[in-house]
Design a protein that fits this description.
The protein is of the alpha+beta class. The chain has seven helices and seven strands. Strands 1-2-3-7-6-5-4 form a seven-stranded antiparallel beta sheet. A hairpin with a 4-residue loop joins strand 5 and strand 6. The longest helix has 19 residues. The termini are far apart. The N terminus is likely disordered.
Length: 209
């Protein structure tokens, strides 16, 4: 009797799996809980869901380190408050790297470029708002001035915060989606770090300018 009940139960489960399209494979959020949460927090859950669906394949994975948003915020803030170490340079944070049917990659770091240099080299940079600049290349690299509370004017050497968003070669990854991801990332960074100068990150990065 117990054996027959077990067969019946397995049949019910199998029917549910077939009817809902479920599988035994873990979702990305289960396999990479910290990475998934960070990607979703920085870029927006809907955007990351769309990116996952776009890159979906048997080899789909998130390969950046398990770095939380709070750890990212703490690291960037610490660099801004402490004296700049010329030997060590700037730390680059690998915040989201998703691969499968294509590759998407984004990093965040204080920029080695000064605000004056970015303003001067107009052949390399587009100004899209006050103290907000986008480089003129396919891998969107946006920098914006972010003043950190507690850092004196002379102390904060890391003035420009940079976000580099490398597009996927998946044909469904559009230029508009690329821009949307960049805007979401930089706005989230601005809000998390509470930049005292409150830089405005516009919806339109004027990439075709």
């Amino acid at each position: 009797m117990r054996f027959l009940m077990r067969i019946a139960w397995c049949g019910v489960v199998a029917g549910l799996v077939l009817s809902t399209g479920c599988s035994d494979e873990q979702s990305l959020s289960e396999k990479y809980p910290t990475q998934w949460k960070t990607c979703a927090a920085l870029f927006g859950t809907k955007n990351i869901d769309s990116l996952r669906d776009m890159l979906d394949s048997e080899a789909l994975k998130i390969s950046n380190p398990a770095l939380s948003v709070s750890q990212l915020k703490k690291g960037l803030t610490k660099e801004a408050l402490e004296p700049y170490d010329k030997r060590k340079g700037f730390s680059e944070y690998d915040v989201c790297r998703m691969s499968g049917n294509g590759l998407f990659h984004a990093t965040v770091a204080w920029s080695a470029d000064t605000l004056k240099a970015v303003q001067f080299y107009t052949e390399s940079w587009n100004q899209v708002d006050k103290d907000v600049y986008v480089s003129k290349n396919s891998n969107i690299y946006l920098v914006f001035r972010c003043d950190i509370n507690g850092a004196s004017t002379g102390q904060q050497k890391q003035v420009l915060l940079g976000a580099r968003v490398t597009p996927s070669d998946n044909p469904r990854f559009s230029a508009a989606f690329h821009q949307q991801l960049t805007v979401n990332l930089t706005r989230t960074l601005r809000n998390e770090l509470a930049c005292t100068n409150k830089p405005n990150i516009p919806d339109d990065l004027q990439l075709n300018k």
